[in-house]
Recover the amino acids of this structure.
C-alpha cells in the first residue's frame, strides 16, 4: 500500500492551510472597534439578510460620520448564518471567541436567534435582537438578551384589541404558513383570540411559495369567519389576496401579522395592487410613522437601494444605533458595563420611536394597525397615532 | 480497494491522537466548532460510505436517519429518559426506520433508488414540520450531553470517537466476507445474486449499520447546538453533504470521506469568511472542478496518479 | 360537488405548468439518462429572464416566456458542451454531483447579479377572473394553460413524427444500436438537453406571473419534476405531461380535503407507491 502517502500528505497540507486560515484571526489594530453581526446573507432568508445589511450599513456610516464610538471608527464584523440555526451558533463563536467583539447583533430569523441565545448567555456577551418576532427567543429571561422589535404576542394582542374597539367580531379563521414564523404567530393569536372570547372556526396551515392557495381559501370560506388573520411571511400575501378574490371570500376583516402584508410594495401596482385594498396589518414601523427621522431613513434607503425599506431594515439600523450609544455611554468595551448601559438606556425620540428596555430585555415598542386605503398604508389604530378611520366592514369583491 | 488492506494501526492511532490533541491546543471554541463539524462529517461520510461506497447504493436520504437521531434524542430526553440511554434508543429508532425504508428502496436501482431515498427523507421532514408532537417548524430544545467550559472540547472528542468507530467498521467491512459481498453487489448485482449472495439481506445490513452511525451523529449534532428545527437536521442538504464529502474525497476508499470533509467543510468556512455572499458560488465551482478533473475523488485520483496501481 | 370540480380545474391549471417542467426533465433524464439536479435552477433562470424583460422593457411575461426559452436553449448549449458532456458517460452520481454544483453556481450567481430580493410582476391579466357559472379561473391561468397545451402537443408531434425526434427515441431505447445505424448520438443528446432546459425556461416564464421570484425559487421544482417523470414512466414524454397534470390535481385535492401543508408529502408518498408497485410508471414501457 504505497498510495496512502499522497492522500495523507494532501490531507495534512490542506488541514494545515485551513487551520491557519481559521486561526489567522483578523484582529484589527487599535484604531477601530468591532461590532459583531450575524445575519442571513445567503439561503432562504437572504432577501431579509440583505435588508438587514443595508440598515446596518446606513447606521454604520452615520455613526462613523459622527466620530464612531469611544473616539474610534466602528467596523462591522458580519457572519453569514446561511439561514441555518447551527451556523448562527457557530457565528457567535467566531465573533466572540475569535474576534472578541464586545456585543453581538442578530440574527435575522426567529429560528437562528433562538438557537444562539444559549451561546451568548454562556459567554456573557450582550445580544441585541433586531427582528425575531417569535416569542420563544425571549424565553430565557437572561439579562444578556435584548429585543428591539415587538413580538408575535404583541401582534396578536394589538389586533384583538383593535377588533374589540371596532365592532367586536365573534369568529375568526387563522391562515398561517407552516414555518416558525407562521406557527408562532398562529399560537399567539389562538391564545389571544380565546382570551377575548373570539371563536376560532378554522385554523389552516399552508406550504409557503406555492402558486395555488384556492383550496385553502375555499376551506376558510366554508367556515364563514368574521375575521381572517393571515400569518404570511413572503409575497404569498399577494397570491392569497388575489385568490381570495377568485374564490370570492368575503370576511368583514382581512387582518394579518405583518411582513408580506406590510411590505412597502404590497399595496402598490407592483405588488398586490387593488387586491390589497382594505387589508389590515400589524406594523412595527412605516416611513410615514410620526417618529422624527423616519422619513430621512426612508430617503437614505431609497437613495442607496432604489426601493423603500420595510421595518426589518430600520430595526437593524436602530439596533446598531442603540448599541453604539450604549458603548459611548458605558465609556468602555467591557461587556457587563455595556449591558448595564443598554439596560439603562431611555431614548425618547428615534426614527423607530421611543426605546426603553424592560426588565426582561424587551423594548416596549408600540405596534400599530394599518389599513391599505387608496394604494397606501394608513395607520388606523391606536387612536392617538391614527391618521384616518378604518373602513369596516370590507366591501365584498363584487362591489369593489 | 487497495487502500483498505494496507492501513497501519499505529499510524492510525497516531493520527487520532494528533486530532484529539488539537482539542487541547485549539485557541478557542470557534476553531473547535469548525473542527467538530469537519470530524462529524468525516464520520458521517464514512457511515455513508458503507452503503454508497461499498455497496454502491447512492442514497440521498440519510438526512432521515440523521434527523431521526436528533429528534429521537430530543423527544426521548424530554420524556425524562436519561440522556445517554436516549442517545442509544434514538439510534435504535433510526435503525427501525432504516429497516422500513430499506425494504422498499432496495428493490429499486440506479437513479430510482436515489430518488426514493430522497422522497422518504422529505416525507419525514414534512411530517415533523406539520406535527405538534415534534414541535413543528418551531423546533425542539435538545439537552446537552456535556456541560461546563470544555463543552466543545468534549463534543469534538465525541465526534472523533464516532469517526473512529465508523473508520474501524469500514476497515472491518473492507476486509470481511461481508464487505466482499457488498462490493460484488456494487459491481454487478445480478451476478452476485446468481452466485447465491442474498443481496437484499446484505444491502439491508449495511444500511442498518450506516443508519445507526448516522443517527448517533445526528443526536450529537442536536446536543451540540441544543436546539433543532426540521430545516437544520432533516434537510436534503445534510444528505447531499454526506454524499458529496464521500464522493469528493473518493467513494469506496478509507481516507476519502476524511479528506473530503476536511476539504469541503473547512473550505466552506474559510470561503464564507472571505467571500461573504458569494461563498456558495465558490463552493459550486469547487464541486464542478473536482467532478471534471478528479472524477474518482481526491484520494481516488491521487492513488491513480501516484500509486501506480 | 362544485367545490370538488373547481379544485380539479385549479389543479389542472397548475398542472399544465408542471407538465412543461416535467417534460423538460423527461427529455433530459427520461430519454437521455442525464440525472439533472439543476432543473429547478434553470427554471429560475427562465423566470429572471422573463422578469428582466418585463421590468426593463415592459415586455409582457406572456411574450417574455419565448425569450426565456430561447435564452435557455443557448445557455443549455454552453452548459452541455463544457459541463454535461464530460460527465455524460459517468455514473449517475457524478452527474448528480455535477448538476448540484451547477445549481449552486446558478442560484448564488443570480443572487449576486439580481440581489436576494423577492420580485413579482403584477399584470392585469392575472387579476381578471373569468366566471363560467359556478366555476372561476383567472384569464392568466387559462392563457398559460393554452400555451402549455400547444407546446405539449407540438413537442409530442416533434418527438413522434420528425426525423430528429425519432432519432431521439432510438437513442433512448438503445444508444449503441442508434449509433450503429448512423445517428449522431452526441448531437442529438445535446439537442435534447437544450430542448429540455428551454422547456424549463419557458415554464419559468409562464410561472412568473402566478408566483414570485427569488434566487432559490427553483429548488422545490427539481424534485417535483423527477416525481412527474417517474410517475409518467421513464422515456415517455407524454407520460411526464400526464404526471404533471396528476401532480397538480393531487395537490389541489389534498389541499381541499386534508390540508395544504400535506400536499407535498402526498406527492412524495404517491411517488413511493408508484415506484414500489409499478416501477415502470403509468405510461412507462421500460422496466426500472
Amino acid at each position: 500500500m504505497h498510495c496512502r502517502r499522497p492522500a495523507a500528505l494532501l490531507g495534512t497540507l490542506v488541514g494545515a492551510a485551513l487551520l491557519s486560515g481559521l486561526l489567522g484571526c483578523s484582529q484589527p489594530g487599535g484604531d477601530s472597534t468591532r461590532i459583531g453581526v450575524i445575519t442571513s446573507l445567503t439561503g432562504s432568508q437572504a432577501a431579509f439578510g440583505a435588508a438587514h445589511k443595508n440598515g446596518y450599513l446606513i447606521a454604520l456610516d452615520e455613526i462613523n460620520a459622527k466620530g464612531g464610538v469611544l473616539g474610534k471608527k466602528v467596523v462591522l464584523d458580519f457572519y453569514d448564518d446561511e439561514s441555518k440555526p447551527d451556523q448562527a451558533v457557530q457565528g457567535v463563536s467566531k465573533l466572540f471567541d475569535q474576534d472578541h467583539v464586545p456585543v453581538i447583533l442578530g440574527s435575522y430569523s426567529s429560528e437562528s436567534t433562538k438557537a444562539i441565545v444559549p451561546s451568548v448567555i454562556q459567554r456573557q456577551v450582550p445580544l441585541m435582537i433586531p427582528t425575531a418576532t417569535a416569542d420563544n427567543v425571549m424565553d430565557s429571561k437572561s439579562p444578556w438578551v435584548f429585543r428591539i422589535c415587538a413580538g408575535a404576542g404583541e401582534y396578536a394582542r394589538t389586533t384583538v384589541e383593535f377588533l374589540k374597539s371596532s365592532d367586536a367580531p365573534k369568529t375568526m379563521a387563522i391562515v398561517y404558513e407552516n414555518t416558525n414564523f407562521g406557527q408562532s404567530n398562529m399560537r399567539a393569536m389562538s391564545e389571544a383570540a380565546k382570551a377575548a372570547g373570539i371563536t376560532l372556526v378554522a385554523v389552516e396551515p399552508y406550504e409557503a411559495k406555492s402558486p395555488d392557495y384556492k383550496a385553502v381559501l375555499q376551506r376558510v370560506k366554508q367556515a364563514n369567519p368574521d375575521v381572517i388573520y393571515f400569518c404570511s411571511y413572503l409575497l404569498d400575501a399577494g397570491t392569497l389576496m388575489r385568490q381570495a378574490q377568485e374564490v370570492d371570500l368575503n370576511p368583514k376583516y382581512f387582518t394579518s401579522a405583518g411582513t408580506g402584508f406590510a411590505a412597502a410594495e404590497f399595496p402598490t401596482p407592483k405588488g398586490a395592487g387593488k387586491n390589497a385594498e382594505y387589508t389590515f396589518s400589524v406594523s412595527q414601523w412605516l416611513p410615514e410613522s410620526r417618529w422624527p427621522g423616519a422619513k430621512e431613513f426612508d430617503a437614505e434607503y431609497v437613495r442607496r437601494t432604489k426601493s423603500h425599506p420595510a421595518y426589518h431594515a430600520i430595526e437593524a439600523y436602530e439596533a446598531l444605533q442603540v448599541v453604539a450609544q450604549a458603548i459611548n455611554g458605558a465609556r468602555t468595551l467591557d461587556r457587563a458595563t455595556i449591558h448595564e448601559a443598554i439596560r439603562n438606556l431611555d431614548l425618547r425620540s428615534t426614527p423607530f420611536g421611543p426605546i426603553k428596555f424592560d426588565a426582561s430585555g424587551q423594548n416596549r415598542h408600540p405596534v400599530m394597525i394599518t389599513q391599505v386605503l387608496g394604494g397606501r398604508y394608513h395607520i388606523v389604530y391606536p387612536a392617538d397615532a391614527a391618521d384616518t378611520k378604518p373602513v369596516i366592514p370590507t366591501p365584498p369583491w363584487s362591489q369593489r | 480497494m487497495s487502500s483498505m488492506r494496507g492501513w497501519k494501526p499505529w499510524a492510525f492511532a497516531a493520527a487520532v491522537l494528533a486530532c484529539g490533541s488539537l482539542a487541547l491546543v485549539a485557541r478557542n471554541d470557534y476553531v473547535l466548532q469548525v473542527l467538530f463539524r469537519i470530524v462529524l462529517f468525516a464520520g458521517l461520510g464514512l457511515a455513508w460510505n458503507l452503503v454508497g461506497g461499498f455497496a454502491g447504493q447512492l442514497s440521498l436520504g440519510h438526512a432521515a436517519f440523521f434527523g431521526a437521531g436528533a429528534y429521537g434524542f430530543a423527544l426521548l430526553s424530554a420524556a425524562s429518559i436519561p440522556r445517554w440511554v436516549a442517545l442509544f434508543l434514538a439510534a435504535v429508532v433510526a435503525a427501525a426506520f432504516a429497516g422500513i425504508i430499506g425494504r422498499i428502496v432496495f428493490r429499486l436501482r440506479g437513479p430510482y433508488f436515489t430518488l426514493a431515498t430522497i422522497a422518504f427523507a422529505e416525507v419525514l421532514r414534512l411530517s415533523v414540520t406539520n406535527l405538534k408532537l415534534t414541535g413543528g417548524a418551531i423546533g425542539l430544545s435538545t439537552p446537552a450531553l456535556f456541560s461546563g467550559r470544555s463543552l466543545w472540547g468534549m463534543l469534538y472528542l465525541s465526534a472523533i470517537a464516532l469517526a473512529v468507530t465508523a473508520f474501524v467498521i469500514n476497515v472491518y467491512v473492507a476486509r470481511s466476507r461481508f464487505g466482499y459481498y457488498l462490493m460484488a453487489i456494487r459491481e454487478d448485482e445480478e451476478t452476485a445474486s446468481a452466485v447465491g449472495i442474498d443481496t437484499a439481506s446484505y444491502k439491508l445490513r449495511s444500511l442498518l449499520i450506516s443508519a445507526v452511525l448516522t443517527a448517533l451523529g445526528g443526536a450529537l449534532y442536536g446536543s451540540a447546538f441544543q436546539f433543532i428545527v426540521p430545516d437544520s437536521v432533516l434537510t436534503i442538504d445534510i444528505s447531499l453533504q454526506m454524499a458529496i464529502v464521500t464522493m469528493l474525497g473518493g467513494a469506496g476508499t478509507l481516507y476519502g470521506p476524511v479528506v473530503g470533509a476536511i476539504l469541503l467543510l473547512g473550505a466552506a468556512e474559510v470561503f464564507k469568511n472571505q467571500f461573504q455572499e458569494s461563498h456558495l458560488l465558490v463552493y459550486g465551482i469547487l464541486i464542478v472542478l473536482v467532478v471534471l478533473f478528479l472524477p474518482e475523488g481526491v484520494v481516488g485520483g491521487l492513488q491513480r496518479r501516484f500509486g501506480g496501481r | 360537488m362544485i367545490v370538488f370540480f373547481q379544485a380539479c380545474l385549479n389543479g389542472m391549471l397548475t398542472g399544465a405548468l408542471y407538465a412543461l417542467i416535467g417534460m423538460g426533465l423527461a427529455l433530459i433524464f427520461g430519454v437521455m439518462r442525464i440525472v439533472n439536479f439543476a432543473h429547478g435552477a434553470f427554471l429560475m433562470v427562465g423566470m429572471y429572464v422573463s422578469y428582466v424583460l418585463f421590468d426593463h422593457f415592459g415586455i409582457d411575461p406572456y411574450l417574455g416566456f419565448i425569450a426565456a426559452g430561447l435564452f435557455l436553449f443557448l445557455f443549455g448549449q454552453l452548459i452541455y458542451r463544457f459541463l454535461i458532456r464530460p460527465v455524460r458517460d459517468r455514473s449517475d452520481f457524478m452527474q448528480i454531483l455535477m448538476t448540484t454544483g451547477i445549481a449552486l453556481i446558478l442560484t448564488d450567481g443570480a443572487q449576486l447579479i439580481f440581489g436576494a430580493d423577492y420580485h413579482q410582476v403584477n399584470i392585469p391579466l392575472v387579476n381578471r377572473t373569468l366566471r363560467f357559472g359556478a366555476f372561476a379561473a383567472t384569464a392568466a391561468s387559462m392563457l398559460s394553460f393554452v400555451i402549455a397545451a400547444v407546446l405539449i402537443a407540438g413537442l409530442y408531434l416533434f418527438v413522434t413524427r420528425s426525423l430528429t425526434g425519432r432519432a431521439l427515441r432510438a437513442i433512448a431505447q438503445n444508444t449503441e444500436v442508434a449509433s450503429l445505424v448512423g445517428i449522431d448520438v452526441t448531437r442529438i443528446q445535446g439537442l435534447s438537453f437544450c430542448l429540455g432546459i428551454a422547456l424549463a425556461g419557458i415554464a419559468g416564464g409562464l410561472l412568473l406571473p402566478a408566483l414570485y421570484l427569488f434566487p432559490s425559487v427553483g429548488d422545490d421544482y427539481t424534485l417535483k419534476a423527477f416525481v412527474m417523470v417517474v410517475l409518467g414512466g421513464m422515456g415517455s414524454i407524454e407520460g411526464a405531461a400526464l404526471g404533471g397534470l396528476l401532480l397538480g390535481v393531487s395537490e389541489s385535492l389534498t389541499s381541499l380535503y386534508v390540508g395544504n401543508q400535506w400536499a407535498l408529502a402526498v406527492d412524495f408518498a404517491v411517488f413511493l407507491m408508484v415506484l414500489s408497485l409499478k416501477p415502470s410508471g403509468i405510461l412507462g414501457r421500460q422496466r426500472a
